[in-house]
Fold this sequence. Notes:
- The protein has 680 residues and is an alpha+beta fold.
- It has five domains: 6-187 and 230-256, Rossmann fold (3-Layer(aba) Sandwich); 284-324 and 337-381, Translation factors (Elongation Factor Tu (Ef-tu), domain 3, Beta Barrel); 391-459, Alpha-Beta Plaits; 467-580, Ribosomal Protein S5, domain 2; 583-666, 2-Layer Sandwich (Alpha-Beta Plaits).
- Strands 16-15-21-12-13-20-17-18 form an eight-stranded antiparallel sheet. Strands 2-3-1-4-5-9-6 form a seven-stranded mixed sheet, with helices on both faces. Strands 27, 32, 33, 34 and 35 form a five-stranded antiparallel sheet that branches.
Amino acid sequence: MATHKTENIRNLALVGQSGSGKSTLIEALLAKSGAIKEMGSHQRGGLVTDFDPLEKLHQHSLDSSIVGFEYDGVHCNFIDTPGYPDFRGPTLAAMAAVETTAIVINAQSGIELSTRRLMKRAVDRKLCRMIIINKIDADTVDLTTLVRQIREEFGNECLPINLPAENHSKVRDCFFHTEGETDIFSLSAAHDEINDQVAEVDDDLMDVYLEQGKLSREQLHEAFEIALRQGHLVPICFVSAQSGAGIDELLKLCKRLAPNPFEGNPPPFLKGQGEDAISVTALPEADAHVIAHVFKITNDPFVGKLSVFRVYQGTIEKDSQLFIGNSRKAFKVGHLFRIQGSKHVHINRAVPGDICAVAKIEDIHYDAVLHDSHDEDDFHLKPLDFPHPMFGLAVTTKVRGQEQKLATSLHHLSEEDPCLSIEHNQELNETIIHGLGDMHLKIMLERMQQRYKVDVDTRPPRIAYRETITIATEGHYRHKKQTGGAGQFGEVYLRIRPLMRGQGFAFVNKVVGASIPTNLIPAVEKGVRLLLVEGAVAGHPLQDIEVTVYDGKHHPVDSKEIAFVTAGKKAFLAAILKANAQILEPVVNLEVSAPDSHMGDITGSLASKRARISGTETLPGGQIAVSAQVPLSVLTDYQTELKSITGGEGSYTMTFSHYDPVPGDVQAKLVAAHNRRDDD
């Protein structure tokens, strides 16, 4: 049973670079609130949010994790998120479920790559933001410089709401208080600065502030909420999760000043698709139609499929019925859970603002909207623009006969992770998994082995080369086979000529008379098409060729279908070997984004890859975008290379463009490799 009201709910996602201490910070909050007796740690184990066996093994978060606790009359939901860039999919999904994003910064490391990315994402989604500087009691920290850097990087709206004191062992509030000794800055000056910033959002309030020199707590609270919503204020608070410094102050800040679902910016729901979509508002009213958004899917070995969602509007009761998206079929909410790390606590009701889950509803998928009225059939949340998974591996089972088990396990894993995609390449007969980097896929494969007991071999995906011809020529083949009984006989003459790139294949019958009976022409075409698939010089499919059959011979007894299949195939091969066969490679449109300081390194790297750079563009925030057409074969390890070139600050997307001839030396290597395989 929900014992709290919507106005008493606080939802926050803790985001930030790996090593900033997010999981330990949540442990400290849980311990301070009385939700747990003692704190766990990565080293000793026992962390509420890092309960997965792989998280324990690698000692860092690999997925988002939800905890809730009561503190002084408010119910706080915190979502712990991974810090490694390879696992930013769950982080971005979690940000869609909260009013407030808390960007956690390691006081020793300062602003890092993820800090910038996540701050930008929070701004784009119009989330309320706060910055938590953690590990303030660590050695060699310079908090004064760090605050200055934060303000230079993210704007003067970033202001301390409390300050470290007593050699960083305590934290003192500077929003409501004006006196006290601190380690950095003047408490009274910091108080005046943040109050000035808050008062600026309301002209009438500013007049009162100028006349009286101060504002009441009630006046400050209302203006604070407006400033947060508008992005006019980003409070900075200081903590040490390990020592507990600032934890009580952070809890008080969440209670007093963090927005509840009524006070945060409304979630960006849309109705309809494409250009016809219109913005709609989900109001956190308990008696309205239900609107909830699924932001996390897990396949729990004990509970089954668990769908985690945020309730935005209406009340969900146990045993009620809900619809999924535009499905006309309802499902029954048989069990309703609140999530506490690895634990699932049964509840009877969820109100607007609650984060909860249902189990064993197979039709629910990530990003689904759950609702109880067909009025909301076409509702969906504004797309989250996840990074496109570009790093690929081909996978095959180590044990024969486990192919179906592999397919099932990959399906479950891709259900959970919006940045993991699965592709089965029919042409190359290989299964390819795509993720955000080598670590991402390494963990996915470890999870598959641990959870589903499927072991796989991996290798880089094969490149889908093509073969074609450059000149017109002719081919001939006589197939004659005598086995003592009925024999085989078929003779075919044909011409071939190149077509324009992308025109594919054409088969033309120009046989006059009955040199090849009409009923055997399809057998000739079948033989030709067999070679189209197998390739002639390097084992890759042929394209952009017209084949014209114009003559042949047959035998009234021995001319069977198989004879003309063989003759057609061999005549086609003979023609191709005289037609200056050429191997084509796929070329992609590549767009690379990175800080402008890396422009030279990026263009130099691309030039070494036979790239044709088509343009560069200056983007906001000191970023550049480089566009180029590049052969796919030279990009198999580009994710790792770009990470090295840009210090992890670059990203790229690519889409197929066209096929181009490979250089002569590349063709020679491909042909030689194919011949070696044939010899083996």
